[in-house]
TrEMBL record:
Keywords: Oxidoreductase. Residues 7-262 form the Aldehyde dehydrogenase domain. This is Succinate-semialdehyde dehydrogenase. The keyword Oxidoreductase applies. PANTHER family: ALDEHYDE DEHYDROGENASE-RELATED. It comes from the Bacteria. One of its GO terms (molecular function) is oxidoreductase activity, acting on the aldehyde or oxo group of donors, NAD or NADP as acceptor. Gene3D superfamilies: Aldehyde Dehydrogenase, Chain A, domain 1, Aldehyde Dehydrogenase, Chain A, domain 2. It comes from Arenicella xantha.
C-alpha cells in the first residue's frame, strides 16, 4: 500500500505537467470523468448500496446520471486557465491558475457522485486531486476512481492525477487535510470541523435541515407530490431533502389529506410519535441503523404497522421547543407544523434551523412573490427552492440557476467559508492585472460625497 507521502508526491508531479494543459485538454479530461460516471451509473449505484447499506439502486443510478450530465453542461465552454476575462472598461485582466493538489473528503451517502463532482471541478482548473473516502464506502470509492483513471489514460493524462486512499483512516484523512493546497470536505459535522481546523484553505458543508413552508395560494396535491418525491429519493439521505413541512392551520386537514392520498403514513397520536422519536434519534442525530433506510424498515424497527405502499412517514410535532423532530432526519420521515400567519411560519422555521441546518436550504411553495421575498429575507439559509423538492433542485438542474454540485456551502450561518454551491472556481487562484486608466475622469470630492 502506498504511503500518503508517496501519494502526495505523485500528485504534485502529475499536477506540474497537467498545469500546462490547454483549455481544450482540460475540458476533455473533465468531460471524460462525467461521461465515465454516466456510463457506469447503475453498476456504481449497486456497489454503493451493497457496501454502505444506504439508499436504493434506482435513485442512486439516477443521481449519478443526472449530476454528471448537469455538471458537464455547466462546465462546458467556461474558461478556467490562462486569461479568462479582459475588462477593457476598467483596465483589468484576470488570469486563472490552478490551486495545485486538491484533497477531497467524501461521504458514505453519495460516494461516486461526490467524487465525480470534485474530480470534474478539480481537473477543469488544472489541479490534481486525492480522494479520502468514508471507510464504509471505500470499495465503491476506489472503483469509481479506477473507472475515472481508465478514461483519463485513454487521453494520455498524467498518471496519478486522480488518486484514492484505498484504506482510509481518520489519521490518514487528517494528514491529507494538513498537506494539500485546498481541501473540500463533504460529510458529517465532526469531519467538516476537522477540515476547518487543518490549517489549510478549506471548503466544508453544514448539516441540512430543510424547512418547507406552504403558502395558502397553492395546489396542495401538487406540492405534496413534490415533497414526497424529494423526501423518499434515495431513502432520504440527501442533505437538501425536505425535513419539516410548515403548513397553514386553516388548511391543515386538507394538506394532510393531500399527503396521505399520495403515499404518506400520517402519525398524529403523540404516544405513537414518541415511539418514533425514541427510535429515530441517538444523541440528537439520526440513528445510524435508520440512515438511508426505507419506510418499511423504519416501521419494523419502531414497531409500527404501515401499508406496503407507504413512501414516507409524516408525523405531527408536539409543538414543544425541544421536540427532536425539529432536527434533521436522514431517512424518509417528515415532521409537520401548523402556522396561524406568515410571521409564525417564519418563526417555526427559524427555531428549527437553530436546532440544526442553519445556512443550508429552505423550500417555499407559493405563487406570491411578496411572501417568497419576505420569507427569504427572514431566514438564515444560503439557498431557497421555489415550488420544487429541495433534494431535486438546489444541487443544480438543467432548468434552474443553481450551480450543479454535490457540495452545498452554508455560509457563515453554518460556520462554512462559502455560501455557494461548490464548483471549479473554488479550486482556482485568480490573478488580476490592473492598468492605470489615465484617461478616466477623476470625480471631485464634492461629487464623491454628494
Amino acid at each position: 500500500m502506498l504511503t500518503l507521502t508517496t501519494i502526495l508526491n505523485d500528485a504534485r508531479s502529475a499536477q506540474a505537467v497537467f498545469a500546462n494543459y490547454s483549455q481544450e485538454q482540460l475540458d476533455a479530461c473533465a468531460r471524460a470523468v462525467g461521461k465515465a460516471l454516466y456510463d457506469n451509473a447503475k453498476e456504481l449505484a449497486e456497489d454503493a448500496v451493497n457496501e454502505t447499506g444506504m439508499g436504493n439502486v434506482a435513485d442512486k443510478t439516477l443521481k449519478n446520471q443526472s449530476k454528471s450530465r448537469n455538471v458537464w453542461h455547466y462546465l462546458k465552454g467556461k474558461k478556467s486557465t490562462g486569461v479568462i476575462e479582459r475588462d477593457e472598461a476598467n483596465g483589468m485582466i484576470t488570469i486563472a491558475h490552478p490551486a495545485g493538489v486538491v484533497g477531497a473528503v467524501t461521504p458514505t451517502t453519495s460516494p461516486s457522485m461526490t467524487i465525480m463532482c470534485n474530480v470534474m471541478c478539480a481537473l477543469k482548473g488544472g489541479n490534481a486531486i486525492v480522494i479520502a473516502p468514508h471507510p464504509r464506502a471505500k470499495k465503491v470509492s476506489a472503483k469509481t476512481v479506477s473507472i475515472i483513471n481508465a478514461e483519463l489514460d485513454k487521453l494520455k493524462a498524467p498518471e496519478n492525477l486522480v488518486q484514492c486512499i484505498e484504506q482510509p483512516s481518520m489519521q490518514l484523512t487528517n494528514e491529507l487535510m494538513a498537506s494539500v493546497d485546498v481541501l473540500v470536505a463533504t460529510g458529517g459535522p465532526a469531519m467538516v470541523k476537522s477540515a476547518y481546523s487543518s490549517g489549510m484553505p478549506s471548503f466544508g458543508v453544514g448539516a441540512g435541515n430543510v424547512q418547507t413552508i406552504f403558502d395558502v395560494d397553492i395546489d396542495y396535491q401538487v406540492a405534496a407530490q413534490k415533497v414526497i418525491a424529494g423526501r423518499c429519493f434515495d431513502n432520504g439521505i440527501i442533505c437538501s431533502g425536505d425535513q419539516s413541512i410548515i403548513i397553514p392551520k386553516q388548511h391543515y386537514q386538507q394538506v394532510i389529506e393531500a399527503f396521505t392520498s399520495q403515499g404518506a403514513y400520517y402519525i398524529e397520536d403523540q404516544q405513537q410519535a414518541d415511539k418514533l422519536r425514541e427510535a429515530l434519534f441517538k444523541d440528537g442525530y439520526t440513528n445510524p441503523d435508520l440512515i438511508g433506510q426505507d419506510v418499511q424498515v423504519i416501521a419494523q424497527y419502531v414497531g409500527l404497522h404501515v401499508p406496503d405502499t407507504a413512501k414516507v412517514i409524516l408525523v405531527k410535532s408536539n409543538g414543544r421547543a425541544d421536540d427532536v423532530l425539529r432536527s434533521e432526519k436522514m431517512c424518509p420521515v417528515l415532521s409537520v407544523f401548523a402556522y396561524q400567519d406568515l410571521e409564525q411560519a417564519i418563526s417555526i422555521a427559524k427555531l428549527n434551523l437553530e436546532v440544526r441546518g442553519k445556512g443550508h436550504t429552505c423550500v417555499i411553495h407559493s405563487h406570491t412573490v411578496e411572501h417568497i421575498e419576505k420569507i427569504g429575507a427572514a431566514l438564515p439559509v444560503s439557498r431557497i427552492a421555489i415550488n420544487e423538492a429541495g433534494s431535486l433542485s438546489v444541487g443544480g438542474t438543467l432548468q434552474n440557476g443553481f450551480v450543479p454540485t454535490g457540495t452545498l456551502g452554508c455560509g457563515f450561518w453554518g460556520n462554512n467559508s462559502t455560501s455557494e454551491n461548490l464548483n471549479y472556481q473554488h479550486m482556482l487562484n485568480l490573478q488580476r492585472i490592473g492598468f492605470t486608466m489615465n484617461h478616466k475622469p477623476v470625480p471631485t470630492d464634492e461629487e464623491i460625497w454628494a
